[in-house]
Write a structure and sequence with these properties.
alpha+beta; Jelly Rolls; Phage tail protein beta-alpha-beta fold; 3 domains; DUF4974 domain-containing protein; FecR
């Protein structure tokens, strides 16, 4: 991906705030990736003037008609914008907006008795990225639901109520612990990454730690006092709803704890999609299917540097014009395929 420019019509939708969430994340990741590859010193820019120049440049690169140009699926090369100067202008402008545009992941709604809370449910069949007020992130599985205060401060805790499955990457703040309530189960962290699986109708809940440490507690029951487990990297706690008991397992017993959400670096060089899917299966311990055999004709030339599975899937879908759905432990990729 190094040195490549995104299609002009995608950047136009991004700047006019008419792109989808998946497209917005693709543009944000594109800039951040390029930004990490450079070591330029900080600089100041005139946001208004730069934005006007970006829009003017995009207008010149697009066809006269209103509709964005149609890109055939078999096109294996990136579309370049006109000239090196235009590319640099887009890079600087999109980067500035990516860092300064307000977060739009959440939708506000009142919870019972708490009108200042935000609630959100992933109603898609994809893994969805959600941004908290403190810039912590959770990757929500389909059907996952959460609620939290519209702003964490000035409360002493960053409190979240959660049901479903999600992978959390919590910004460290030793003065304001991040607490997740899933039914009777309480998960408390200062700053780390971990997965919570707590579907309301399941008999047991699971908390799996990828990095750092997490404190998991279960309430007292008629047979025992409150239990607290401190989990470290590659450990998992299982909470039984019926008995309110906690048990500890390690990555040796649950290898998926280690692999499912660990970032991976992969390089595809004119690689058939079926072969790329096989590499993703091995890297992330998840089953991937191509819903249409014609997708086997698609080839990928792209490199991923320490990226998580949903980020990789979103980029592949953008390149191929495909989409995916998550059903249980299986990812199905849908699309028309690619011509020779």
């Amino acid at each position: 991906m190094k040195g490549k420019a995104l299609p002009a019509d995608l950047l136009k939708r991004y700047l006019t705030n008419t792109c989808t969430e998946a497209e917005r994340r693709v543009v944000d990741e594109w800039y951040l990736r390029l930004d990490r590859e450079q070591e330029a010193a900080p600089f100041s820019i005139d946001e208004h003037a730069l934005l006007q120049r970006i829009r003017a440049d995009i207008a010149h690169t697009l066809p006269p008609r209103e509709e964005a140009p149609v890109v055939p699926l078999n096109r294996r090369r990136w579309l370049y914008l006109s000239g090196i100067a235009a590319s640099l202008l887009l890079l600087l402008g999109v980067g500035y907006l990516a860092w300064n545009r307000p977060a739009t992941d959440s939708s506000s709604a009142a919870t019972s008795g708490t009108p200042d809370w935000t609630v959100h449910t992933n109603t898609t069949k994809k893994i969805e990225r959600y941004l908290f007020p403190d810039q912590s992130v959770v990757w929500l599985q389909p059907g996952a639901r959460l609620s939290h205060p519209a702003a964490f401060a000035p409360a002493p805790h960053r409190e979240v109520r959660f049901a479903g499955e999600g992978f959390f990457e919590v910004v460290r703040d030793t003065l304001h612990p991040f607490i997740i309530y899933s039914g009777a189960l309480k998960t408390q962290v200062l700053g780390t990454s971990f997965n919570v699986r707590a579907y309301e109708n399941d008999s047991s809940y699971h908390v799996s730690v990828l990095t750092g440490s997490v404190a998991v507690s279960a309430p007292a029951s008629p047979t025992h006092d409150e239990e607290v487990l401190v989990l470290k990297t590659n450990e998992q706690a299982t909470y039984q709803n019926a008995t309110r008991s906690l048990t500890l397992e390690t990555a040796a017993a649950k290898p998926e704890i280690k692999q499912a959400w660990r970032p991976a670096s992969l390089v595809f060089n004119d690689t058939p999609l079926s072969e790329a899917a096989a590499q993703l299966q091995k890297a992330f311990q998840i089953h991937i299917e191509l819903a249409n055999p014609a997708l086997n004709t698609c080839r990928l030339t792209v490199d991923f540097n320490k990226q998580r599975l949903p980020e990789i899937l979103n980029m592949i879908n953008t390149l191929l014009g495909s989409t995916y759905e998550l059903e249980g432990d299986t990812i199905r990729i849908f699309g028309d395929g690619c011509s020779d």
